[in-house]
Amino acid sequence: MSGLVVETSSGPVRGFLDREVPNWRGVPYGRIERRFRPAVPAQRGDLVDATRWGPISWQVPIYSGMSWQVVYPDAVEHEECLNLNIWSPGADGGSRPVLVWLHSGGHVYGSGSSPSMDAWVYAARHDAVIVTANYRLGPWGWLYLGDLDPDYGDSANLPVLDQILLLRWVRDNIAQFGGDPANVTIFGVSSGASDVGTLLGAPAARGLFHKAALYSGNAETPVTRNEAVRRARRFMAEAGSLADTPAALAAVPNVALRHIHRKQLKNDGRVYYGPFVDGEVLPKMPIDAVGDGLMADVPLLVSVVAAEARMYDAFAPDMVDRMYAARSGPDPDAAHDAKVDFLTEKLYFEPAERLLVAAHKVGTPGWWQVFDYVPSNSPIGNNPIFGGRPVHGVDVPALFIDPDGAEGTDVDRAVGAEEQGALMGLARDGRLGWEPWSPAQPTPHRIGP
Fold it and tell me: Molecular function (GO) terms listed (predicted)?
């Protein structure tokens, strides 16, 4: 049992065995002293009982009328949510590759302990140390109030700063858990992948990670400062009598922030949250920073799913048609699948290739893969509305399936082993089983049955 008590900058933490693999849960890495302010490192304290999940960020819906439950039913939502989870083959002085997972959820929901992913597999089957984490979401993290009140000038891109604080904690402590702080790979799916892409443009993150893998994400998410201010003004307008100033908004109960979000959701259909180019945390668009060589020593794995955009069928029956028209699709009478393929190309394939082009320009190796399979254990993929096509998110079960377990079919496990093998090839030594992307070799590697 003594090997499960580890000294950290947050104090000693006591873990437990998760299916015979040492696991520490709910370890604090930061502290939020004031709402809408940058967090500070967690204070060293007494022994932490790291046997239970820590609090997660408050969750809000992404679309009006749609509420996806992607966290455990007994999850505790709390503003003080900066904690992480670690699985390791052993806190034994080893020097294993480290994986840090940034979760999905459109920047409004999800957590580092979502039941859809089982990080255990990387410690149990790949001899790696894996970290998952919680950080601020929705208006608690992404609402920029600095142009409405100069006193909140440091409220830009708070979740990005949370993630940088997380990576600093990993750098300072992961060796105690058998991980190599000089070999850290960050990876994520969907908005988590775009968080990875955003960190590629954050100077303060340089040196805190050494490889990066983006699954259905890109390095083009941040909006302009003007758009960030417009979003904040819109949120304040919806607050009405609840809060007429940023200071008043900082003082309302959490339930009031949820109420304001839902009011705006009802009127606008969706409330967008995410990073913006603020000039300091993000001096420029991340893809431009990549092209300028900010992370030239960080090899990349960029993955897309074959029919990503078919996912929009779940949001509204006519959403694919509306998005196709908004992007000047060439044939208004095209078949539905043709419109899906056009949107997948524009929204996923082309941003992926632009990132690879930017990296290649400064000599950074990058690998491109396409996931072309619908796992039998994917609740998303087996929704009949998608017609059996591999849509956005179907690759998550393959990323976390146990290749040596009993879940899924033999093909599910074989595809999962291939996808995990590509990630671990990147994480171990920056080499995958196929040629890196180049203008002479632009065809993506396809993962499927």
Answer: hydrolase activity
Query: Is residue 111 a contact partner of residue 103, using CB atoms and an 8 Å limit?
Result: yes
Give burial (CB, 10 Å; 0-12/13-18/19+) of 20: exposed
pLDDT digits (tens, 9 = 90+) for 352-364: 999 999 999 999 9
- Residue 402 CA to residue 404 CA, distance in Å, equals 5
* Residue with tokens 């591999």, as numbered in its chain: 390
Written as one string, the DSSP assignment of 235-283 is HHHHHGGG-SSHHHHHHS-HHHHHHHHHHHHHHHSB-----B--SSSSS
Q: How many beta carbons lie within 10 A of that of residue 298, not counting itself?
A: 23
Architecture of domain 2-447: 3-Layer(aba) Sandwich (3.40)
Residue spans of the domains in the chain: they are 2-447
Give the burial class of 209: count Cβ atoms within 10 A of its Cβ; 0-12 exposed, 13-18 middle, 19 or more buried: buried
Nearest to 177 by CA among 372, 61, 21, 342: 21
Q: Round to whole Å and give the CA distance between 246 and 253.
A: 14
pTM, whole model, 2 decimals? Answer: 0.96
Q: What one-character DSSP code corresponds to residue 346?
A: I
SS3 content of the chain, % helix, strand, coil (to 5): 35, 20, 45
Of residues 116, 133, 131, the one with CA closest to residue 55: 133
**pLDDT of 125-148, one tens digit each?**
999 999 999 999 999 999 999 999
Report d(CA 144, CA 154) in Å as an integer.
Answer: 9
- Is position 194 annotated as part of the catalytic site? no
Q: Decide: 338 and 414 in contact? Cβ < 8 Å.
A: no
Give phi and psi for 181, each to the nearest 5. -65, -10
Of the residues 104, 155, 190, 194, only one is catalytic, namely 190
